[in-house]
Specification:
Elements lengths: L3 E2 L2 E2 H8 E10 L3 H11 L5 E6 L2 E7 L5 E7 L5 H10 L4 E2 L2 E5 L2 H10 L4 E5 L3 E6 L4 E6 L8 H4 L5 E11 L2 H10 L3 E8 L2 E8 L2 E7 L4 H5 L8 E9 L2 H8 L5 E3 L3 E6 L4 E6 L1
Parallel strand pairs: 3-6, 8-11, 12-15, 16-19
Antiparallel strand pairs: 1-2, 3-7, 3-8, 4-5, 5-6, 9-10, 10-11, 12-16, 13-14, 14-15, 17-18, 18-19
Length: about 280
């Protein structure tokens, strides 16, 4: 087993190389409906995207550079458009997630040492490394200081950043081993909404692996009874009281002392807002 790489232990190398969960692509059937829901009901500022590569998109951008990307296919003859069209044959919702890194070269060497198969894509803005096991990709930006404008990152609901992902797993130990092989840190067991989870940390972000077999109430609040994969996000906000006043009359909202949870049943996702 390799103990040191570039002068650091494996864990030290990857905790310093990983920045955070960068963004999550979310497949939806009707982009217009989603934009209205996000802006009118949840009081996010929605940034318009564009049509390209067989898809059209829009974004929720945050001050720290993290974001959510909502995508609908427009041309399934193009590769990317076909990927999202195929995903939507099963369900709407989060398709995968990206983790931003400081140095893609260090990550590639680590993947080679661990015998993890991957593919690389790049352009003038970013380079991506995608393990063939699927569900995750890593991204290095050419300009790591770039952040979107205040116009696009200032939200009426006071949202600041994407902090965590909740993931329904039908084999928590298998998924735990998978993400630990990429260098994620295992932080042990816990409970969320009465569901056992295993917490992993990557950079400044968290990944919660929820036991799918014990997530009956969560799945009942979504639109897919046998769903696995990304099911929710934690969004850090400045003021829960401000958010709660804005969405208190919205259906499928649970307001608790330290968090507010809202379910977007049609797209199989929930938002956990925390200060």
């Amino acid at each position: 087993m390799l103990t040191f790489l570039f002068g650091f232990s494996n864990n030290q190398t990857h905790q310093s190389n990983y920045i955070s969960i960068d963004h999550i692509p979310i497949a939806v059937k009707n982009l217009g409906n989603i934009k209205n829901m996000l802006s009118e009901l949840l009081c996010f500022k929605v940034k318009e995207g564009r049509e390209h590569a067989g898809i059209k998109n829009c974004f929720i951008k945050f001050q720290d550079g993290t974001y959510l990307e909502f995508i609908t296919p427009t041309d399934s003859l193009q590769e990317i458009g076909k990927n999202y069209a195929d995903f939507l044959k099963k369900r709407q919702g989060g398709t995968s997630f990206a983790v931003s890194v400081e140095n893609s070269g260090s990550l590639i060497q680590y993947m080679n040492v661990k015998s993890i198969s991957y593919k690389i894509d790049s352009n003038k803005i970013w380079k991506t490394i995608e393990p063939k096991s699927g569900g995750i990709f890593f991204i290095e930006y050419s300009n790591k200081q770039w952040k979107d404008s205040k116009i696009n990152t200032t939200h009426l609901n006071t949202a600041l950043s994407l902090k965590s992902i909740y993931f329904l797993s039908n084999d928590v130990l298998f998924d735990l081993k998978k993400y630990k092989s990429f260098g994620f840190s295992d932080k042990g067991d816990g409970i969320f909404l009465n569901v056992p989870y295993r917490k992993l940390v990557v950079g400044h972000s968290n990944l919660y692996l929820l036991d799918e077999s014990k997530s009956i109430k969560i799945k009942q609040s979504l639109n897919q009874s046998n769903m696995t994969g990304i099911c929710g996000f934690e969004i850090k906000i400045k003021s829960l009281s401000t958010l709660n006043k804005l969405i208190e009359n919205m259906p499928n909202v649970t307001i608790e002392k330290r968090q507010t949870i809202t379910y977007l049943k049609d797209i199989n996702l929930f938002f956990v807002f925390t200060e």
